[in-house]
């Protein structure tokens, strides 16, 4: 056991040199995570949609041509075939506020999308941070059980020698062997758990990670709560919903439109003596004012949109309460973990002392192997719990930080 403790730091040092830090894990996630990339593409799409409606007057210029032909009973005063080429420009001077509301709606949706991307980043950072320390817990636990395995193996060889000399019975040897084999199974199961968590970490970071260093999060205390990007995004969605009501309501307001059309004509198959003054070019200017007196759908659509807006408001109120609750619980969890670490540290020290005493008694034949193995198992269990508590404390710090609503860049800059 003493030799293992001397060799273990050298083994760990060789792996830590090329180990991945927590900051590197987070940065790789921000740059390579597929969900974050998809969210950024969605932002670009929302921005393009906003750009497409940015001009509220919606000016349009169209060019076109048409061809018409008369057959059979064509009068002498009619043209047989006409080709018309035109350039038309139209502008909405007033559309009941529809285009302005559409512009505002798409702007709010774009801003909401940006906020959702920040939320996605935070969620992924929290996820990989949690995985990082969960993997560290398993690594530390494996080390504790490997140390136990070395101890059991040494005791097994010692007792096996005594059995060969007929100094003890076979049951003492078998009990140690059974405990040793059980310990080996526990280690293999922990290694599988480590492999599973590393696979998930590799998926989120889009990077091959095999070893982790001993990174810890900066201490974060006395943080003030502020609304998260989730709350801000939902607020933007409420504003977008309000603009949607204006869009629907615009149908019942006056509509004013300007239109100018330049036409070029070409004629065939007509009597040039009778039709002498056919125009070759014409410019037509028009102003159209319309007002919708009655429709059967806008009222129901407006009512539906108002209900959808109320739904979003209710969700917003719940989200505000939920986030404040989670922040308070995260802060309480941090304090609880600190107390747990102190308690388990004492338990480890006492367990180590008890084990050393029992070990001496066992080697001198004062206590049986059952008492010895019980002391060894409790000592191992306490050490594993202590290592887990240290890593759970780091996870608690991450939860406390991200539940506060603070910008994730502040955390990265504090490493």
Provide an overview of this structure.
This protein is an alpha+beta fold and 415 residues long. It has 9 helices and 4 strands. A 4-stranded antiparallel sheet has the order 1-2-3-4, with no helix packed on it. It is elongated. Residues 10-17 have low confidence and may be disordered.
Q: Main traits of this protein?
A:
single chain, 415 residues, alpha+beta, four-stranded antiparallel sheet, 9 helices
Give the topology:
Elements: H1 2-16, H2 22-32, H3 34-52, E1 60-69, E2 81-94, H4 98-164, H5 170-205, H6 229-249, E3 255-268, E4 281-290, H7 298-363, H8 369-403, H9 408-413
Antiparallel strand pairs: 1-2, 2-3, 3-4
Helix pairs in contact: 2-4, 3-4, 4-5, 4-6, 4-8, 6-7, 7-8
Give a concise summary.
With about 425 residues, this protein is of the alpha+beta class.
In round numbers, the mean pLDDT is 90
Low-confidence residue ranges: 10-17
Q: Give the strand content.
A: 5-15%
Helix content: 55-70%
Strand order of the largest sheet: 1-2-3-4
Number of helices: 9
Question: In sequence order, what are the helices and strands, one letter per element?
Answer: HHHEEHHHEEHHH
Distance from first to last alpha carbon: 36 Å
Give me the secondary-structure category: alpha+beta
Total strand count, please? 4
Most strands sheet: 4 strands, antiparallel
What gross morphology would you assign? elongated
